[in-house]
Design a protein that fits this description.
The chain is of the alpha/beta class. Helix content is 40%, strand content 13%. It has 16 helices and 16 strands. Strand 3, helix 5 and strand 4 form a beta-alpha-beta unit. The chain is globular and about 60 Å long. The two termini are 39 Å apart. The structure holds ligand P71.
Length: 458
Protein backbone atom coordinates (compact mmCIF):
# COMPACT_ATOMS: atom_id res chain seq x y z
CA UNK A 1 0.00 0.00 0.00
CA UNK A 2 1.11 3.52 -0.76
CA UNK A 3 2.50 5.35 2.25
CA UNK A 4 1.17 8.70 3.41
CA UNK A 5 3.60 11.08 5.14
CA UNK A 6 2.57 12.56 8.47
CA UNK A 7 1.87 16.28 8.23
CA UNK A 8 4.52 18.39 10.03
CA UNK A 9 1.80 20.87 11.07
CA UNK A 10 -1.65 20.87 12.63
CA UNK A 11 -4.77 22.67 11.46
CA UNK A 12 -5.90 25.89 13.16
CA UNK A 13 -8.42 27.35 10.69
CA UNK A 14 -10.88 25.40 8.57
CA UNK A 15 -12.86 26.32 5.48
CA UNK A 16 -16.06 24.39 4.67
CA UNK A 17 -16.36 22.69 1.30
CA UNK A 18 -19.50 21.20 -0.20
CA UNK A 19 -20.20 18.27 -2.48
CA UNK A 20 -22.83 18.77 -5.22
CA UNK A 21 -24.97 16.16 -6.96
CA UNK A 22 -24.08 14.81 -10.38
CA UNK A 23 -27.24 16.42 -11.81
CA UNK A 24 -26.15 19.80 -10.40
CA UNK A 25 -22.66 19.38 -11.86
CA UNK A 26 -24.03 18.54 -15.30
CA UNK A 27 -25.93 21.82 -15.32
CA UNK A 28 -22.99 23.80 -13.84
CA UNK A 29 -20.63 22.44 -16.48
CA UNK A 30 -23.02 23.15 -19.34
CA UNK A 31 -23.41 26.75 -18.13
CA UNK A 32 -19.62 27.06 -17.85
CA UNK A 33 -19.19 26.12 -21.52
CA UNK A 34 -17.32 22.98 -20.39
CA UNK A 35 -14.41 25.09 -19.19
CA UNK A 36 -13.55 24.48 -15.53
CA UNK A 37 -12.06 27.98 -15.24
CA UNK A 38 -15.64 29.27 -15.61
CA UNK A 39 -17.00 27.17 -12.73
CA UNK A 40 -17.51 28.94 -9.40
CA UNK A 41 -15.08 27.65 -6.78
CA UNK A 42 -17.97 26.97 -4.39
CA UNK A 43 -19.28 24.39 -6.84
CA UNK A 44 -16.00 22.46 -6.65
CA UNK A 45 -15.51 19.78 -3.98
CA UNK A 46 -11.75 19.22 -4.24
CA UNK A 47 -9.99 21.95 -6.17
CA UNK A 48 -6.84 20.70 -7.91
CA UNK A 49 -6.95 23.37 -10.63
CA UNK A 50 -3.65 24.77 -9.48
CA UNK A 51 -1.08 24.80 -6.69
CA UNK A 52 -0.58 28.49 -7.46
CA UNK A 53 -1.72 30.96 -4.82
CA UNK A 54 -3.77 28.25 -3.11
CA UNK A 55 -1.43 27.44 -0.21
CA UNK A 56 -2.49 27.58 3.42
CA UNK A 57 -0.21 30.19 5.00
CA UNK A 58 1.39 29.47 8.36
CA UNK A 59 0.73 31.28 11.63
CA UNK A 60 4.11 32.97 11.15
CA UNK A 61 3.12 34.23 7.70
CA UNK A 62 -0.20 35.54 9.01
CA UNK A 63 1.62 37.21 11.88
CA UNK A 64 3.94 38.74 9.29
CA UNK A 65 0.94 40.25 7.52
CA UNK A 66 0.22 42.22 10.71
CA UNK A 67 3.64 43.82 10.64
CA UNK A 68 3.17 44.97 7.07
CA UNK A 69 4.65 48.43 6.60
CA UNK A 70 2.46 50.18 4.04
CA UNK A 71 4.82 53.08 3.32
CA UNK A 72 5.04 53.85 -0.37
CA UNK A 73 8.82 53.77 -0.49
CA UNK A 74 11.35 51.77 1.48
CA UNK A 75 8.97 49.74 3.66
CA UNK A 76 10.67 47.42 6.14
CA UNK A 77 9.16 44.30 4.57
CA UNK A 78 11.01 45.02 1.31
CA UNK A 79 14.30 44.70 3.18
CA UNK A 80 13.21 41.44 4.83
CA UNK A 81 12.36 40.10 1.39
CA UNK A 82 15.64 41.38 -0.02
CA UNK A 83 17.51 39.52 2.69
CA UNK A 84 15.66 36.27 1.93
CA UNK A 85 16.11 36.56 -1.85
CA UNK A 86 19.78 37.51 -1.68
CA UNK A 87 20.55 34.82 0.86
CA UNK A 88 18.74 32.05 -1.02
CA UNK A 89 19.40 32.99 -4.67
CA UNK A 90 22.61 34.97 -4.35
CA UNK A 91 21.36 37.40 -7.04
CA UNK A 92 22.40 40.99 -6.42
CA UNK A 93 19.25 42.83 -7.54
CA UNK A 94 15.54 42.11 -7.51
CA UNK A 95 12.20 43.78 -8.07
CA UNK A 96 8.96 42.51 -6.48
CA UNK A 97 6.05 41.87 -8.86
CA UNK A 98 2.43 40.98 -8.20
CA UNK A 99 3.00 37.49 -9.61
CA UNK A 100 5.20 35.45 -11.92
CA UNK A 101 3.85 36.57 -15.27
CA UNK A 102 4.49 40.21 -14.37
CA UNK A 103 8.15 39.32 -13.78
CA UNK A 104 8.17 37.60 -17.19
CA UNK A 105 6.62 40.63 -18.84
CA UNK A 106 9.23 42.97 -17.34
CA UNK A 107 12.11 40.61 -18.22
CA UNK A 108 11.04 39.95 -21.81
CA UNK A 109 10.17 43.61 -22.42
CA UNK A 110 13.75 44.46 -21.42
CA UNK A 111 15.40 41.70 -23.44
CA UNK A 112 13.41 40.17 -26.32
CA UNK A 113 13.24 41.78 -29.78
CA UNK A 114 10.77 40.63 -32.46
CA UNK A 115 12.07 37.57 -34.32
CA UNK A 116 14.34 36.41 -31.51
CA UNK A 117 14.06 32.99 -29.83
CA UNK A 118 13.99 32.00 -26.17
CA UNK A 119 14.98 28.35 -25.64
CA UNK A 120 14.00 26.47 -22.49
CA UNK A 121 13.51 22.90 -21.36
CA UNK A 122 9.80 23.68 -21.65
CA UNK A 123 7.97 26.97 -21.36
CA UNK A 124 4.86 27.10 -19.26
CA UNK A 125 1.78 28.84 -20.65
CA UNK A 126 2.39 32.40 -19.46
CA UNK A 127 6.12 32.36 -20.30
CA UNK A 128 5.35 31.06 -23.77
CA UNK A 129 2.64 33.70 -24.23
CA UNK A 130 4.83 36.54 -22.89
CA UNK A 131 7.63 35.63 -25.34
CA UNK A 132 5.09 35.52 -28.20
CA UNK A 133 3.62 38.84 -27.05
CA UNK A 134 7.08 40.40 -27.58
CA UNK A 135 7.19 39.01 -31.12
CA UNK A 136 9.64 36.31 -30.01
CA UNK A 137 9.60 32.56 -30.47
CA UNK A 138 9.52 30.26 -27.41
CA UNK A 139 11.46 27.06 -28.12
CA UNK A 140 11.18 23.84 -26.08
CA UNK A 141 14.27 21.61 -26.01
CA UNK A 142 13.28 19.00 -23.42
CA UNK A 143 15.41 15.84 -23.49
CA UNK A 144 13.66 12.88 -25.13
CA UNK A 145 12.86 10.86 -21.99
CA UNK A 146 10.87 13.78 -20.56
CA UNK A 147 8.35 13.20 -23.33
CA UNK A 148 7.83 9.53 -22.47
CA UNK A 149 5.12 9.32 -19.76
CA UNK A 150 6.20 5.79 -18.82
CA UNK A 151 9.94 6.46 -18.31
CA UNK A 152 11.09 6.44 -14.69
CA UNK A 153 14.21 8.50 -15.33
CA UNK A 154 15.07 10.59 -12.24
CA UNK A 155 15.38 13.98 -13.96
CA UNK A 156 12.79 14.13 -16.72
CA UNK A 157 12.86 17.93 -16.67
CA UNK A 158 16.36 18.01 -18.19
CA UNK A 159 17.01 20.03 -21.32
CA UNK A 160 18.77 18.38 -24.28
CA UNK A 161 22.18 20.09 -24.12
CA UNK A 162 23.24 19.04 -27.65
CA UNK A 163 20.01 20.39 -29.09
CA UNK A 164 20.55 23.68 -27.25
CA UNK A 165 24.01 24.14 -28.73
CA UNK A 166 22.82 23.13 -32.22
CA UNK A 167 19.90 25.53 -31.90
CA UNK A 168 22.12 28.48 -30.93
CA UNK A 169 24.44 27.78 -33.87
CA UNK A 170 21.49 27.43 -36.23
CA UNK A 171 19.79 30.77 -35.40
CA UNK A 172 22.94 32.61 -34.24
CA UNK A 173 23.62 33.71 -30.65
CA UNK A 174 22.63 37.30 -31.54
CA UNK A 175 19.07 35.99 -31.98
CA UNK A 176 18.93 34.36 -28.57
CA UNK A 177 18.52 37.17 -25.97
CA UNK A 178 18.31 34.68 -23.09
CA UNK A 179 17.84 31.00 -22.31
CA UNK A 180 15.72 29.54 -19.53
CA UNK A 181 15.02 26.41 -17.51
CA UNK A 182 11.71 25.81 -15.77
CA UNK A 183 12.31 24.13 -12.39
CA UNK A 184 10.42 21.88 -11.91
CA UNK A 185 9.11 21.39 -15.43
CA UNK A 186 5.41 22.15 -15.07
CA UNK A 187 4.26 21.47 -18.66
CA UNK A 188 6.12 18.15 -18.63
CA UNK A 189 4.72 16.60 -15.46
CA UNK A 190 6.33 18.62 -12.65
CA UNK A 191 9.60 16.74 -13.22
CA UNK A 192 12.89 17.98 -11.74
CA UNK A 193 15.94 19.25 -13.59
CA UNK A 194 19.26 17.75 -12.44
CA UNK A 195 22.08 19.87 -11.04
CA UNK A 196 24.35 18.67 -13.85
CA UNK A 197 21.82 19.84 -16.42
CA UNK A 198 21.41 23.26 -14.81
CA UNK A 199 25.20 23.65 -14.76
CA UNK A 200 25.58 22.47 -18.38
CA UNK A 201 22.78 24.74 -19.62
CA UNK A 202 24.53 27.69 -18.01
CA UNK A 203 27.87 26.70 -19.51
CA UNK A 204 26.53 26.42 -23.07
CA UNK A 205 24.57 29.68 -22.89
CA UNK A 206 27.51 31.56 -21.35
CA UNK A 207 29.93 30.22 -23.97
CA UNK A 208 27.82 32.12 -26.51
CA UNK A 209 27.42 35.17 -24.27
CA UNK A 210 23.72 34.46 -23.64
CA UNK A 211 22.20 35.21 -20.21
CA UNK A 212 20.58 32.30 -18.36
CA UNK A 213 17.43 32.70 -16.26
CA UNK A 214 15.62 30.14 -14.12
CA UNK A 215 11.83 30.09 -14.08
CA UNK A 216 12.10 29.29 -10.41
CA UNK A 217 8.56 28.99 -9.02
CA UNK A 218 9.16 25.44 -7.79
CA UNK A 219 12.88 25.73 -7.02
CA UNK A 220 12.56 24.22 -3.52
CA UNK A 221 10.71 21.14 -4.78
CA UNK A 222 13.36 20.79 -7.51
CA UNK A 223 16.14 21.09 -4.93
CA UNK A 224 14.51 18.43 -2.76
CA UNK A 225 14.26 16.04 -5.73
CA UNK A 226 18.00 16.57 -6.33
CA UNK A 227 18.61 15.58 -2.71
CA UNK A 228 16.44 12.47 -3.09
CA UNK A 229 17.66 11.35 -6.50
CA UNK A 230 21.28 12.43 -6.92
CA UNK A 231 23.48 10.47 -4.47
CA UNK A 232 26.09 13.24 -4.57
CA UNK A 233 23.58 15.54 -2.79
CA UNK A 234 22.02 13.04 -0.36
CA UNK A 235 23.65 14.77 2.63
CA UNK A 236 23.57 18.33 1.33
CA UNK A 237 21.08 20.72 2.99
CA UNK A 238 18.30 21.71 0.56
CA UNK A 239 19.18 25.36 1.06
CA UNK A 240 22.70 24.71 -0.23
CA UNK A 241 21.33 22.74 -3.18
CA UNK A 242 19.04 25.66 -4.03
CA UNK A 243 21.95 28.11 -3.74
CA UNK A 244 24.01 26.01 -6.11
CA UNK A 245 21.13 25.82 -8.61
CA UNK A 246 20.87 29.61 -8.65
CA UNK A 247 24.65 30.03 -8.81
CA UNK A 248 24.74 28.80 -12.43
CA UNK A 249 22.15 31.36 -13.57
CA UNK A 250 22.20 35.13 -14.12
CA UNK A 251 18.76 35.66 -12.68
CA UNK A 252 15.30 34.23 -12.21
CA UNK A 253 11.63 34.91 -12.55
CA UNK A 254 9.63 33.71 -9.59
CA UNK A 255 5.96 33.22 -8.97
CA UNK A 256 5.99 33.20 -5.16
CA UNK A 257 2.49 31.70 -5.35
CA UNK A 258 4.08 28.26 -5.51
CA UNK A 259 7.09 27.36 -3.37
CA UNK A 260 6.98 30.58 -1.35
CA UNK A 261 3.58 29.53 0.02
CA UNK A 262 1.70 32.78 -0.52
CA UNK A 263 -1.58 33.68 -2.13
CA UNK A 264 -0.10 36.48 -4.24
CA UNK A 265 3.39 37.72 -5.12
CA UNK A 266 6.47 37.21 -7.25
CA UNK A 267 9.77 38.76 -8.22
CA UNK A 268 12.41 39.16 -10.88
CA UNK A 269 16.02 38.82 -9.70
CA UNK A 270 19.28 39.33 -11.60
CA UNK A 271 22.97 40.11 -11.32
CA UNK A 272 23.23 42.55 -14.24
CA UNK A 273 22.99 46.13 -12.96
CA UNK A 274 22.07 47.65 -16.34
CA UNK A 275 19.25 45.14 -16.76
CA UNK A 276 18.09 45.91 -13.22
CA UNK A 277 17.88 49.61 -14.06
CA UNK A 278 15.79 48.90 -17.17
CA UNK A 279 13.61 46.51 -15.14
CA UNK A 280 12.97 49.29 -12.61
CA UNK A 281 11.73 51.55 -15.40
CA UNK A 282 9.35 48.88 -16.66
CA UNK A 283 8.30 48.11 -13.10
CA UNK A 284 7.41 51.70 -12.30
CA UNK A 285 5.40 51.86 -15.52
CA UNK A 286 3.44 48.66 -14.91
CA UNK A 287 3.65 47.32 -11.36
CA UNK A 288 4.70 50.04 -8.93
CA UNK A 289 7.67 51.59 -7.18
CA UNK A 290 10.64 49.16 -6.91
CA UNK A 291 10.26 48.62 -3.15
CA UNK A 292 6.72 47.25 -3.44
CA UNK A 293 6.14 46.27 -7.07
CA UNK A 294 2.39 45.76 -7.16
CA UNK A 295 2.15 44.25 -3.69
CA UNK A 296 1.21 45.52 -0.24
CA UNK A 297 3.93 45.62 2.41
CA UNK A 298 2.17 42.76 4.20
CA UNK A 299 2.34 40.62 1.06
CA UNK A 300 6.10 41.21 0.81
CA UNK A 301 6.47 39.98 4.40
CA UNK A 302 4.46 36.82 3.70
CA UNK A 303 6.72 36.08 0.69
CA UNK A 304 9.88 36.70 2.75
CA UNK A 305 8.75 34.24 5.43
CA UNK A 306 7.30 31.79 2.90
CA UNK A 307 10.58 31.52 0.99
CA UNK A 308 12.24 30.14 4.10
CA UNK A 309 9.32 27.87 5.04
CA UNK A 310 9.27 26.40 1.53
CA UNK A 311 12.85 25.22 2.05
CA UNK A 312 12.15 23.45 5.35
CA UNK A 313 13.15 19.82 4.84
CA UNK A 314 10.42 18.33 7.02
CA UNK A 315 7.88 20.30 5.05
CA UNK A 316 9.42 19.20 1.72
CA UNK A 317 9.49 15.53 2.75
CA UNK A 318 5.78 15.82 3.54
CA UNK A 319 5.06 17.79 0.37
CA UNK A 320 6.78 15.45 -2.06
CA UNK A 321 5.46 12.39 -0.17
CA UNK A 322 1.89 13.77 -0.27
CA UNK A 323 1.99 14.14 -4.05
CA UNK A 324 3.72 10.77 -4.38
CA UNK A 325 0.89 9.16 -2.35
CA UNK A 326 -1.73 10.31 -4.85
CA UNK A 327 0.38 9.08 -7.76
CA UNK A 328 1.09 5.70 -6.15
CA UNK A 329 -2.60 5.17 -5.32
CA UNK A 330 -3.62 5.90 -8.91
CA UNK A 331 -0.98 3.49 -10.20
CA UNK A 332 -2.31 0.84 -7.79
CA UNK A 333 -5.65 1.26 -9.58
CA UNK A 334 -3.91 0.87 -12.98
CA UNK A 335 -4.86 4.41 -13.95
CA UNK A 336 -2.30 5.78 -16.44
CA UNK A 337 -0.41 8.77 -15.08
CA UNK A 338 2.78 10.44 -16.19
CA UNK A 339 5.41 8.65 -14.13
CA UNK A 340 6.97 9.22 -11.74
CA UNK A 341 4.59 11.65 -9.95
CA UNK A 342 5.78 15.27 -10.02
CA UNK A 343 6.49 17.53 -7.07
CA UNK A 344 3.38 19.68 -7.12
CA UNK A 345 0.99 17.53 -9.10
CA UNK A 346 0.05 14.18 -10.53
CA UNK A 347 -0.74 14.23 -14.23
CA UNK A 348 -3.29 11.85 -15.76
CA UNK A 349 -2.11 10.63 -19.16
CA UNK A 350 -5.12 11.35 -21.37
CA UNK A 351 -3.54 9.70 -24.42
CA UNK A 352 -3.37 6.32 -22.71
CA UNK A 353 -6.58 6.81 -20.71
CA UNK A 354 -8.72 7.78 -23.69
CA UNK A 355 -6.95 6.22 -26.69
CA UNK A 356 -10.20 6.33 -28.69
CA UNK A 357 -10.22 10.17 -28.74
CA UNK A 358 -7.79 11.82 -31.22
CA UNK A 359 -5.98 14.97 -30.04
CA UNK A 360 -8.02 17.08 -32.46
CA UNK A 361 -11.03 16.14 -30.29
CA UNK A 362 -9.34 17.33 -27.09
CA UNK A 363 -9.11 14.20 -24.91
CA UNK A 364 -7.53 16.14 -22.03
CA UNK A 365 -10.44 18.58 -21.93
CA UNK A 366 -12.93 15.69 -22.09
CA UNK A 367 -11.17 14.02 -19.17
CA UNK A 368 -11.11 17.24 -17.14
CA UNK A 369 -14.88 17.59 -17.59
CA UNK A 370 -15.53 13.95 -16.75
CA UNK A 371 -13.53 14.17 -13.52
CA UNK A 372 -15.64 17.12 -12.44
CA UNK A 373 -18.86 15.27 -13.29
CA UNK A 374 -17.68 12.16 -11.47
CA UNK A 375 -16.45 13.68 -8.21
CA UNK A 376 -16.73 17.48 -8.23
CA UNK A 377 -12.95 17.51 -8.70
CA UNK A 378 -11.34 20.31 -10.70
CA UNK A 379 -8.12 19.57 -12.55
CA UNK A 380 -6.62 21.45 -15.46
CA UNK A 381 -5.95 20.35 -19.02
CA UNK A 382 -2.27 20.60 -19.98
CA UNK A 383 -2.47 19.35 -23.52
CA UNK A 384 -3.92 20.47 -26.82
CA UNK A 385 -6.16 23.19 -25.40
CA UNK A 386 -3.22 24.80 -23.57
CA UNK A 387 -0.45 24.16 -26.09
CA UNK A 388 -1.60 23.22 -29.63
CA UNK A 389 -0.38 25.97 -32.00
CA UNK A 390 -0.99 26.71 -35.64
CA UNK A 391 2.14 26.22 -37.72
CA UNK A 392 2.82 29.76 -39.05
CA UNK A 393 3.92 28.36 -42.44
CA UNK A 394 1.47 25.56 -43.18
CA UNK A 395 -1.46 26.83 -41.09
CA UNK A 396 -1.88 23.32 -39.72
CA UNK A 397 -2.46 22.60 -36.04
CA UNK A 398 0.59 21.15 -34.28
CA UNK A 399 -0.39 19.12 -31.22
CA UNK A 400 1.85 18.74 -28.14
CA UNK A 401 3.46 15.32 -27.47
CA UNK A 402 1.98 15.18 -23.98
CA UNK A 403 -1.79 15.25 -23.48
CA UNK A 404 -2.27 15.57 -19.74
CA UNK A 405 -4.77 16.44 -17.05
CA UNK A 406 -2.97 17.89 -14.09
CA UNK A 407 -4.16 17.28 -10.55
CA UNK A 408 -2.21 20.04 -8.81
CA UNK A 409 -2.04 19.87 -5.05
CA UNK A 410 -2.40 23.07 -3.04
CA UNK A 411 0.22 23.21 -0.29
CA UNK A 412 -0.81 22.27 3.27
CA UNK A 413 -4.50 22.24 2.28
CA UNK A 414 -5.85 18.73 1.68
CA UNK A 415 -5.59 15.56 3.80
CA UNK A 416 -5.09 11.91 2.92
CA UNK A 417 -8.88 11.38 2.96
CA UNK A 418 -9.28 14.12 0.35
CA UNK A 419 -6.71 12.42 -1.86
CA UNK A 420 -8.44 9.06 -1.34
CA UNK A 421 -11.70 10.55 -2.57
CA UNK A 422 -9.87 11.83 -5.68
CA UNK A 423 -8.59 8.30 -6.30
CA UNK A 424 -12.11 6.92 -5.86
CA UNK A 425 -13.52 9.35 -8.45
CA UNK A 426 -10.69 8.49 -10.87
CA UNK A 427 -11.40 4.78 -10.37
CA UNK A 428 -15.10 5.20 -11.22
CA UNK A 429 -14.22 7.37 -14.21
CA UNK A 430 -11.71 4.80 -15.42
CA UNK A 431 -14.37 2.06 -15.27
CA UNK A 432 -16.55 4.00 -17.72
CA UNK A 433 -13.77 5.48 -19.85
CA UNK A 434 -14.95 3.93 -23.13
CA UNK A 435 -18.15 6.00 -22.97
CA UNK A 436 -16.27 9.33 -22.73
CA UNK A 437 -16.57 11.43 -25.90
CA UNK A 438 -14.34 14.14 -27.35
CA UNK A 439 -15.05 17.88 -27.44
CA UNK A 440 -14.93 20.79 -29.83
CA UNK A 441 -14.49 24.54 -29.40
CA UNK A 442 -17.43 26.91 -29.61
CA UNK A 443 -15.07 29.84 -28.78
CA UNK A 444 -11.27 30.00 -28.81
CA UNK A 445 -9.27 33.23 -28.26
CA UNK A 446 -5.85 33.51 -29.96
CA UNK A 447 -3.55 33.77 -26.89
CA UNK A 448 -3.74 31.78 -23.61
CA UNK A 449 -6.82 30.07 -25.03
CA UNK A 450 -7.40 27.67 -22.13
CA UNK A 451 -8.46 30.33 -19.62
CA UNK A 452 -11.54 31.53 -21.51
CA UNK A 453 -12.31 29.05 -24.34
CA UNK A 454 -15.76 27.46 -24.52
CA UNK A 455 -16.56 23.92 -25.63
CA UNK A 456 -19.28 21.42 -26.35
CA UNK A 457 -19.20 17.61 -26.19
CA UNK A 458 -19.20 15.78 -29.53
C1 LIG B 1 0.02 26.80 -12.51
C2 LIG B 1 0.30 28.21 -12.81
C3 LIG B 1 -0.81 29.21 -12.87
C4 LIG B 1 -1.89 28.70 -13.72
C5 LIG B 1 -1.66 28.46 -15.03
C6 LIG B 1 -2.63 27.88 -15.82
C7 LIG B 1 -3.83 27.55 -15.25
C8 LIG B 1 -4.07 27.81 -13.92
C9 LIG B 1 -3.09 28.39 -13.15
C10 LIG B 1 2.16 29.61 -13.31
C11 LIG B 1 3.50 29.67 -13.71
C12 LIG B 1 4.30 28.48 -13.79
C13 LIG B 1 5.58 28.56 -14.29
C14 LIG B 1 6.44 27.36 -14.41
C15 LIG B 1 5.36 30.91 -14.54
C16 LIG B 1 4.07 30.89 -14.06
C17 LIG B 1 3.31 32.16 -13.95
N1 LIG B 1 1.57 28.47 -13.06
N2 LIG B 1 6.08 29.77 -14.65
O1 LIG B 1 0.94 25.98 -12.65
O2 LIG B 1 3.84 27.29 -13.41
O3 LIG B 1 3.19 32.56 -12.63
O4 LIG B 1 0.70 32.47 -12.22
O5 LIG B 1 2.21 33.78 -10.73
O6 LIG B 1 1.75 34.57 -13.01
O7 LIG B 1 -1.09 26.45 -12.14
P1 LIG B 1 1.89 33.39 -12.14
Amino acid sequence: MAKFPVEPFRIKVVEPIRQTTRAEREEILRQAGYNLFAVQAEDVYIDLLTDSGTSAMSDSQWAGMMVGDESYAGCRNFFNLEEAIQSITGFRYFVPTHQGRAAENVLFTCTVEPGQSVPSNMHFDTTQANVIARGGEPVNLLAEEGLDPTSHAPFKGDLDIDKLEAFIQQVGPENVPLGMLTVTNNSGGGQPVSMANIRATGEVLHRYGIPFFLDACRFAENAYFIKLRDPAYADTPVLDIAREMFSYADGCTMSAKKDALVNIGGFLAMNDEALYQRACQQLILREGFPTYGGLAGRDLEAVARGLWEGLDEQYLAYRIGHTRYLGDRLVEEDIPILEPPGGHAVYLDAKRLLPHIPQSQLPGQALTCELYLEGGIRGVEIGSVMFAREDPETGEMVYPSLELVRLAIPRRVYTQAHLDSVVEACRRLYGGREQIRGMRYTYAPPLLRHFTAQFEPL
